[in-house]
TrEMBL record:
Primary location class: membrane
Spans traversing the lipid bilayer: 326-348
Source organism per UniProt: Chinchilla lanigera (Long-tailed chinchilla)
Top-level taxonomic group: Eukaryota
Protein's recorded name: Protein FAM187B
Alphabetic keyword roster: Glycoprotein, Membrane, Signal, Transmembrane, Transmembrane helix
Topology relative to the membrane: Single-pass type I membrane protein
GO cellular component, one term: membrane
Signal peptide region: 1-17
Keyword Glycoprotein recorded: yes
Gene it is expressed from: Fam187b
Localization annotation: Membrane
Amino acid sequence: MLTTLWLLLSLAVPVPGFYTPISCPRGQKCQLALLSGNDVLLECPLFGGHWKYYFSMSKESRAYDPSKVSNIEITSENNLAITNPLPSQKGLYHCWDKSNTEVIQFEIDFQDMSTVHITHNALQVMPLQNQSVREGSREIMFTQWEPWQDCNRCGVPGERKRLGYCYVDEPLEDPMPCGLYLGEVLGWSSRMRPEVQVETCLVECKDTSFAPVGFVIYDNFKFNEEQESLWLHCPIASMYRPVSWEANNTPLTWQNELSGKNLHSTLDIPSGGRQLQIFQPAIYRCFVEQEVVAQFNPLGALKPKEPQTRENKTQEPVSKTLSIPLWLKLLPFVGTVLVLGLLLLKTLSPLSGKSRNRTLLVK
């Protein structure tokens, strides 16, 4: 029961594993580029500490309490959880101890994933080329690449990706994220965007008990006459992690998505596949770090819908029955578990709960 309760509560509050952790050595200033729309956790595990946020790169600008921002929360460990960060939230994030001494400073450029440039080794698309900041200038905008992520599947053909961030190289200076270097000077440029490279891969499955989460979520969905599409949400999926989907055991690949061959579904690319828009019933499963984390089963036997054109697939669906955050759906169940736990402590008698459509299977 305590294990189930921990799993449910972990969906309701930010915890390590659900947000990508970003650390910085104590007493240091860390300058980095990150991606908009992908959750991160800025670490500053300091009892009694507090955070300050500056929209600009100058400490002389007004300081804000980041916990007052709707998509930012300070965890019980004093870490800063940022949900779906916006490009406009670039700036300085400072962690201070209770004596008002600065401990850690993050300088972050949240690069706009709505403008991302994606290439695949099986498709004829070229990466972005280096470009001068201004005509005739010696400052060059280029892409700084991270290492390749692991293959998103094992034992079967899969894909892997690596992330690239826009940086400016200035003579005799360290490279700097484009948004921090140019944001207040040049404004936006078509070269100031992140990149993603994808390639096919095939790796053997390792004999390990590691899993990104300790459970699998089973959920049901159903189309009605007015709906053209639904949205499915994959827990803990992110552009920072290897993610994949399949429909009726058929992989929904990045290659097919980029070439328009995923006729009955659309991967949400800016979120790294955290969301999948579907246009016909099937059994859908999502994998994170090669492990299945969720399965979505159709209710009833419905006639498959006709394949949608790419134009129709990008339209906003009439209804998103699964667009409600997962933790909000499970919140009533959390309350039920807490009440049952209290009764159990008082009566020491076995209790049974109501059955639900959604099931958490602990691994």
